[in-house]
Amino acid sequence: MEKCKTIVLVNILAFMFLFSGCSGIKDKFIPKPKDEDPRIKKYFAVREYDVHPTYEMYRKRYVLWKNWHKELLSILRNTNHKKIMVTIDQENSNLIDMHSMLIDAEAEKLQKVINQMEEIEKLIKKGRLNTGGEVRIRQKLESLGREIKRDFNYNKMKDCIRGNFKTDE
Predict the structure, then answer these.
(1) Which of 13, 22, 64, 157 has its CA 20 to 30 A from that of 80?
(2) How far apart are CA 31 and CA 28, in angstroms?
(3) Which tens digits make up the pLDDT trace of 108-125?
(4) What is the pTM of this model?
């Protein structure tokens, strides 16, 4: 009789376990939806600051441009296309910032260089550069780099900084 009760009890427990399933274990392995929005959040300044171009700001942009230019020359042969694009975007961004700080005569000269850099950017964006195209782009970048270092060095541009930022209106 004791054996019979034990067998019935074991069968009842097995029956309950069989129909209850392993939902607790299964839930651990099912990915849960993320609550946060994966898009980047943008923050806007609440108040405006009265900032004017200064020699220090120009020097900072020039040094940043110089570093991004060296980086671009060093990774040009790299297969990571995204890194090359980020680098050339940063280089052009710093040139545009330098352009907005210069008086009109010097800004015109720098605009010609910026236009050439944008042409190079378009060539690189097309992708699939062969060795000859890569060599031509490298030579052009080195030439533009020498021109910027010679003509738009922050020591030469000390007296060419405008009072307010140039706007494209």
Answers:
(1) 64
(2) 8
(3) 999 999 999 999 999 888
(4) 0.67
